Amino acid sequence: MLLKAPRQWIASPLAYNMLLALLNENVPSVDKYQDLIKKMQRKQGYLSMNKLFLSSERVGETKDLQYLMQTLSHIEMEETNFSKSLNSFELWVRKFGYKGPGLEIPSSSEYVLANAFFFRRAWLKSDSAGASMKIFNSFNYTSDVTYDARILELPLCSKFKLVLLIPCERDRLDALFSRLNNEGLAAAISSLHPIFTVNSKMVAPNIDFASTIQIKNI
User: Please, which domain of life does this record's source organism belong to (predicted)?
Assistant: First the structure.
């Protein structure tokens, strides 16, 4: 949670947690997302569609799949062949305007639970200039502003606000570590002046990222 008085911003991986909430899975704070779904459904301009795609190639039905179909009996289901291009899942996603990559589903998959989420409301016009948004440049990861992220707050015609966290430039974080590896390490090695002759091997460290979810009452 990112707090900036007098506002409270909540940042969370909304989509997959809302899908888990549909399954009533025993995951941390899933009840928060179940409550969030109910609140969002009461908002004007909210539209969420769910669909369960079952593999037509599956042999029998596992207990997990039987449980899933029983739990999601209220959701539309369709059989499809994930090994074929332009299968039902891909067509369903692309009809909402998605044109990017990453829709390939392994042919061994038994099912895919998909969610399409839309929120459409008019922007709040604060003056005669028209719609506006607030941009916060205080999300600093490095001393170089080109590697920072920006927070965009889009005020709507209600108390509900949409907040987006976006990087200033794509793949900048990857470029940063490449530069540290290729240039920074080389500069560090060249600056060494040992007092005796020795053979040594220096390598760049491996850096891993971990993400956790913490939900707090506000």
Answer: Eukaryota
Instruction: Domain of residue 66: give its range.
Output: 2-119
Classified as helix, coil or strand, 177 is helix
2-6 contacts, C-beta under 8 A, 24 or more apart: 2/151, 4/136
pLDDT digits (tens, 9 = 90+) for 65-75: 777 777 777 78
The per-residue pLDDT for range 137-159, each reduced to its tens digit, is 554 444 555 555 666 676 666 66
If asked whether residues 111 and 135 sit together in one domain, one would say no
- 3-class DSSP assignment, residue 50: strand
Q: Is 132 left (phi over 0), alpha (psi -120 to 50) or beta?
A: beta
Whether the ω angle into residue 167 lies within 30 degrees of 0, i.e. cis, is no
Crossing angle of helices 14-23 and 30-41, in 10° steps, is 100
Q: What is the mean pLDDT of residues 125-132?
A: 57
CATH number of the domain to which 51 belongs: 3.30.497
What is the arithmetic mean of pLDDT over 10-39?
Answer: 64
Single-letter residue type at 7: R
